[in-house]
Specification:
Number of domains of chain A: 1
Helix content of chain B: over 70%
Shape of chain A: globular
Oligomer: heterodimer
Low-confidence stretches of chain B: 287-295
Radius of gyration of chain B: 21 Å
Radius of gyration of chain A: 16 Å
Strand content of chain B: under 5%
Low-confidence stretches of chain A: none
Number of strands of chain A: 7
Structural class of chain A: alpha/beta
Distance between the termini of chain A: 43 Å
Shape of chain B: globular
Helix content of chain A: 25-40%
Number of helices of chain A: 9
CATH architecture of chain A: 3-Layer(aba) Sandwich
């Protein structure tokens, strides 16, 4: 059954392509096998699947999503998909006293993997993304050599609005921008996060 | 001619495809040779456009051939797939709301497969009324159940339109393949080829004439190149081509001429209407690169067929009282 996760992955990517067209526009950078943190706006459960389907096949294996441990390990199927197919990094949503919630992410980056993160934290309603959370800043400061790639996901909220189970076929696109400079020594957290958010929002105009 | 008549139907259809693919292969070879030659910058852009057209023609020919060799079931599946992609493109550019979700699911996953199932099983009577009569009510009911009164008529009209054009209209193409005439069994491919050739002739003739005639457009804000004279002459040209092609159809020359006129007039007028729709949605071509999505622009290519096929199908069927 070694082939099963790979086959399921291909099937899911194919489904994403059938339903959304999965168009990737590489505007500021080419798809390349270097260590990266992709950060994007978050509107739907499909966001991760779409980014994953847009990536070239050989980048998929080393690009990992973040999954909330309580939800994605709740039953065997969810756990198997996130672990075997997507190789997800699990994080705890409940903050415990002695543990840094970013630790699993830092571990993955230290191992050389690329990550896809949605810094808004929760799925926003359509329109402008909400303010970014601080995790992106800490990771970027800790790993300045990792390229920070902003991405804008367009139209996904129409495919599967919050609360619906079945997707409607509507064309979506992911637009990747130019790498964002890591936080400067004198740049404070809020300024960096605002800069990162602006880089994502700016891609909306490129995509449209 | 006599040698042709002696052949079996399968041989005739085979010959048709050999000719079609041969012409395409020659055109591709010419394009490849031309691309090897050193050229001015303007030529490069034109060459790219021509190659895009060629690719689309190959895809169309492959679809046609695939539909033929795979029989009723395969043809239905293939055209159903095209229908799905066209509807996806159409809906993308219409601004649907959250509360349309269920109606859209109904359109994509119930109406589309059912309509094509009716084609595949040759239930042509139900096939004709299924969408205009039954789905006409079903969509607004599902929509009303979603409980959102805002722009209710407009939202439903958009979905109904998408279904009529992309599912109902396009499903008449495989239906032509499956239509049975007395003494014309198994030759549906010729009928479909006749329709495609006639509609394409009208399209290209109209475009060429519009460039040459340079008349004032009738509706400048919708289509700068659409003029009544170019349209009329393009339709006449298509009618003439149809008349000359009568020997591949079950019709007499005069009948072929009349049907070609009807089909090509509908096709080009349908394109004109789609142009108005695109203007309304604020794009120049479906799935344009600068639009939301960067899709393949499939709807642009099948729009004329979507409007011509139903009219052609029904005129043929009623006039000849064709059986099931």
């Amino acid at each position: 059954m070694q082939w099963l996760p790979g086959a399921v992955g291909l099937l899911l990517a194919g489904l994403a392509r059938l339903v959304t067209g999965a168009q990737g526009h590489w505007h500021g950078c080419p798809p390349k096998a270097e260590q990266r943190i992709y950060f994007a706006n978050h509107q739907s459960h499909l966001d991760w699947l779409l980014i994953w389907a847009v990536l070239p096949g050989d980048l998929r294996a080393s690009t990992r999503p973040i999954a909330a441990r309580d939800y994605w390990t709740a039953n065997a199927l969810r756990h198997w998909i996130t672990r075997e197919v997507f190789n997800a990094v699990y994080v705890d949503r409940q903050r415990s006293e002695d543990q840094d919630p970013l630790e699993p992410l830092a571990e993955a980056l230290a191992r050389g993997d690329s990550l896809v993160i949605f810094p808004e934290g929760t799925r926003g309603h359509a329109g402008r993304p909400q303010p970014f959370r601080g995790g992106l800043y800490h990771l970027a400061a800790q790993f300045p050599q990792v390229a920070l790639i902003p991405a804008w996901i367009d139209n996904v909220q129409r495919v599967m609005p919050k609360g619906e189970v079945l997707p409607v076929p509507i064309l979506c696109s992911v637009t990747f921008g130019a790498p964002l400079a890591p936080p400067a020594p004198d740049e404070d957290k809020r300024a960096f996060l605002e800069r990162a958010r602006a880089a994502v929002v700016a891609l909306d105009a490129v995509a449209a | 001619m006599d040698a042709l008549r002696q052949m079996s139907v399968t041989q005739q259809v085979g010959l048709l495809f050999v000719l079609l693919l041969g012409v395409l292969a020659l055109a591709t070879a010419a394009a490849v040779l031309r691309s090897l030659r050193e050229s001015a910058p303007g030529d490069a852009e034109r060459g790219r456009a021509a190659r895009r057209e060629l690719r689309a023609l190959w895809a169309g020919a492959a679809l046609f051939w695939g539909a033929w060799v795979s029989g009723p079931l395969g043809a239905t599946l293939l055209f159903g797939g095209v229908s799905f992609l066209a509807l996806r493109e159409f809906i993308t550019l219409m601004h649907t709301r959250r509360s349309d979700h269920r109606s859209l699911l109904l359109a994509f996953f119930a109406v589309l497969p059912l309509q094509y199932a009716l084609v595949a099983t040759r239930h042509f009577d139900l096939f004709t009324v299924f969408i205009p009569v039954y789905i006409f009510l079903a969509i607004p009911v599902v929509s009303a159940l979603a409980g959102d009164p805002e722009r209710f008529l407009e939202r439903n009209a958009k979905i109904q339109w998408g279904i009529m054009v992309c599912i109902y209209g396009l499903s008449h193409t495989p239906a032509l393949l499956l239509l049975q005439f007395p003494h014309y069994e198994g030759r549906g491919a010729f009928l479909l080829l006749f329709l495609v050739v006639v509609v394409a002739t009208a399209h290209f003739a109209q475009q060429a004439l519009a460039l040459r005639l340079r008349r004032r457009p009738v509706a400048r804000r919708i289509d700068r190149s659409f003029g009544l004279r170019a349209w009329g002459l393009g339709t006449l040209a298509a009618g003439a081509v149809g008349g000359l092609l009568y020997w591949i159809t079950p019709f007499q020359a005069g009948q072929a001429l009349a049907l070609a006129l009807i089909a090509s007039a509908c096709g080009t007028l349908g394109e004109f209407v789609m142009q108005a729709l695109k203007r309304d949605a604020g794009v120049r071509a479906w799935g344009n690169r600068v639009a939301v999505t960067g899709a393949v622009g499939l709807l642009d290519r099948v729009a004329a067929l979507c409007f011509a096929a139903p009219v052609f199908f029904h005129s043929v069927r009623w006039y000849f009282h064709a059986g099931v």
